[in-house]
User: Fold these one by one.
Assistant:
Number 1:
Amino acid sequence: MKKTKFIILIIPLILIFFNLSSPQEKPVPLPPTEIKAFDSPNDNGHSISVTWKLSPDDGAGKNNVVAYEILRAESPEGEFEVRGMVPSGENLFDDKGSREKEDKNYLPSHKNYYYKIRAKADNIFSESEVSNPAFAYGQWYHTGKTPVLAGVIIFSIFALTFITLARKGKKLYIRPLPGIEAVDEAVGRATEMGKPILYVLGLGTASDIATIASFTILNRIAKITAEHRTTILVPCYDSVVMAAAQETVRAGYLEAGRPDIYKEENVFFVTSMQFAYVAGVNGLMLREKPATNFYLGKFYAESLLLAETGSIAGSIQISGTDEIAQIPFFIAATDYTLIGEELYAASAYLGKEPVLLGTLKAQDWGKAVVIICLILGALAASFHFQFFLNLFRVQL
Amino acid sequence: MRRTLPFALVTGVGFFMLVQYFIPKEEFEIAYEWILDWTIVIGCFAMLLGLWSLTRVNISKVQRKTPGWGYSLIAIAGMVFMLLVGFIPGQKSLERGSIFMLLFEYIYIPIQATMFSLLAFYVASAAYRAFRARTILATILLLSAIIIMLRLVPLGPLSEINQWLANFILTVPNMAAKRAFWIGVGLGVTATSLKILLGIERTYMGRD
């Protein structure tokens, strides 16, 4: 009886062993067809794209294709080298090369290349025919950025139209901004108290538009302080910003006709380390007790540290930034906040020059166009009007 | 001349940067990178200006014995000491274990962390001021903040409702406001860039 049981158990095991160890004939997948190579659009001239028709065994037939391997050679009979791999179901590969001659991955412009595609199923594969020759070349225009170009042109037309109208003397209504209207009051308070004004340009560099916008506001405020003979202190985080801020403040004093009271040492460099800068400026606030603090420019985690210390020092505080994460902190801790675009508009408000007001009006018209496009876009998306939506699609 | 040449440079380089954004050709890419390299070089030279400014302002404070001149003295001493330590012969100052790096890691970084930690207390005091329900808007702000803060707290059967409310606040009114903000900033940046390119706004260059 025991012997019979043993035989019943051992026979299936032997069968399973031989079944697993014997070599299996795996079916070779059919190769992909219609291999087309062409220059990649909108690039610097060092990339070739390849497309193909999927293998009949990809997702159908034997359904055993797991990936496609892309091979490249300098001639149809030449030695093909593997350039990359894409998973099954995909039929596009961008063979992106380097533009540096010393680079191993260098792909020169205007040189013909040939491609082959391998349909892979585990360790076996089948190769396609060789593609047509293709060479890479750089384009003179990035077609994917057309919506951006259209936006820039439309906005420029608005701006130039309103600047021309303003120059001709047309009165432009601009809605008031409480933060800007408080500037005169803030400078007046400093004058009455005999205390300085602190102007913080933030952590931005001279190439940040927010910092440049802040320079223009600084110029207007420096002019007002010069007229009131009030000291303005500008601690800087970046040495290039410091150099530009010195020129800006000096220009403000010159415009006010008081270059004699301008002191270069009042616009000074502190450090380029974020929290060391905060420590320096906070120390200055607590020692000098400025009557008014301006925080206008690019701010990060230091915004609240500065604004709260200013609040403790009892200063009137006006802030403004285009960093959305810092806006709540400024709103909570300062008296007036210029939110986003108001920072860019502030210089025009303070200057009241018609040319600057023209660009401000253009901004408002730009917003109107955006609102109309948003409404039309929502309708187009709801009614599947794809053509309209594609007009706004940007490819980078 | 003092303003004409810088203005010509700003306009020329500015228009080039605008145009190159739309031209992917290699030559434009190389020129763009070349200009970016120049900004780094200029930044390095400007660092000397910063160093000069820092030294001059602090020495002046020490000489005049203005209130808090002791801090200026410490700042100058610290700067000189770090400069000297950075140039110790036979030591690679940026290598781990060098005196320069030890000072950086065990003095500067803890001080910096302390400054950053203050943020927690400042957030509490700012939140107290912001969330006082004095007006309707402040009350809405307070209620929204409570809902958002409680979304990570288990509230039993109320969790699901609170989660839905928090998601609604974040994805509908909050996202709408954020998008409006970004659109406004985008237009503002374009307007400011245009003013600079056309020479309408050039206060940052100073005056003759």
Note: Chain B has a mean pLDDT of 89.
Number 2:
Amino acid sequence: MTAQAFAVSDTATMLRRDLKHALRFPMVAMSGFLTPVVLLLLFDGVFGRTLRAGLHGAALGGGYVDYVVPGVLVMAAGGVAEATAIGINTDMSEGIIARFRTMAIWRPAVLAGPVAGSVARTVLTGAAVLAVGIGLGFRPHASVLGWLAVAGLFALLGLALSWLTVAFGLLAKTPAGANSLSLIPLFLPFVSSAFVPTGAMPAGVRAFAQYEPFTPVIDSLRGLLTGAPIGADGLQVLAWCAGIAVAGFWWATTLYNRGPRTAG
Amino acid sequence: MSEQTPEPAPGLAIDARGISKSFGQQTALDGLDLRVPAGAVTALIGPNGSGKTTTVRVLSTLLAPDSGSVTVFGYDVVADAAAVRGLIGVTGQFSAVDQLLTGRENLALMADLHHLRRTVARERIPDLLARFELAEAADRPAMTYSGGMRRRLDLAMTLMGEPSIVFLDEPTTGLDPRGRLVLWRIIRELVASGVTVLLTTQYLEEADRLADQVTLIDHGRQVADGTPAQLKRFAPGGRVRLRFAGEGVLAEASSLFDGAEPAEDGLSLVLASDGSVSSLQRVLDTLAVHQLPVESLSVEPPDLDDVFFALTGQEERR
């Protein structure tokens, strides 16, 4: 109907609301940025030497930092999405959401605005992780086209994770519940090629790690950034991200349209 | 927005017939009928849990009824929910403002969501801030506002899109007397400008003062409707208030009349009365026989409290 015509403008309005919230409470955005940086320092500075020795340098190009940065990038996206889930869950208990429901707007905009904000924060956090990584000795040699592909893939990953965690945020009854559900995408990268090659894992775990979606995403990012063999099908990566994004969108809007959480 | 308004059923803004809504075992609405005339204030009154809030939620497209039909200016609230949303403004019981944004930003958010032209928004925002006595606090986050200020901002946001009908769910609950007067003034101005208002309230005085039309509900069903004057005819009568010179006389007098209640001032007695001259005569005769001096006497007509009591058998706040 007429409301559809305003999909872009209503989403932009809700994005502005989301950004104003973020600027008014910069601590939330800051913690989303600090966590992956600490993770990077931890894995490179504390475990890096041991991990590299244990792997005999096999499959690793240069230093361990070259190997681990793409993995931390993906974890950073998961961390931002987690904060988005908590934010949506908190927001849904506010009276203003009931007002939005009574207005002639494009209804998914209430969710799409925060998702757009989440993707923006994901990209910024990713840039920060790369900057710290470069400070630690990470030396990407991607072409201009490669950098564009990295940015595009990373934003798409942010979009997929954000829609998924927005659905988590709507599903959970409390912010703590939203947080728990979001730990799934946050911890899955540990059992992927993020920190050690899947080939170095025990057989059972390896089978899981090879086929879970984060492994091809991380391998693609690593390949694009460092020129390491990608070993993953680009189409498969795009299919995973697009699939999760569409499923998350459908799930989230279905939950939202089901109506207010409380009956009263 | 006004150009989408179809020809409404003559004179009716809302036509609800037999709406029912249950939550599990609990029946909130049980075949409620409600007719709201356009361009006037209609008050929906009833005790807590009688279904007032559920009614507002159904009318404002937040809840679909289990059965029955509801149209708002001719649009069905379920089938044409989007069209209904374009005509209504809702101020619920719980503050629907963005606490993190300032008053001005909240209004700008509404202007954007109503797709108002920038020039229109630039005029309307300061207008509303001034009208709702929020100009000074306009650039403070809403979380720093008092309850009354938040309620006013809430209503200002509701009016940003110039709705044809405004739903107010207990708009003055929890407000101090001054805040209540400010809100009453705003509601009167609204109606004077041609907007239809449906308000729910537990304060019968509020309905008496503001409403052109009153619908009384209980247990999710309509008990009565009419103008306040028409409804008052349902009440058996009013009261006679007798004021005495001292507590001794008061005590003596109260033992003479069945069901006499001492008033708050400590010097008066309130008696139920059907308002007839003969009943008044009996009271005066009794006083004369016992030689009790009366300082003053007044006859009070029934108010909506009495109607409420007569029709629902419940004593609401007195």
Note: Chain B touches chain A at residues 23-24, 53, 60-63, 82-83, 85-86, 88-90, 92, 94-101, 105, 109, 112-115, 141, 157-158, 161 (CB under 8 Å).
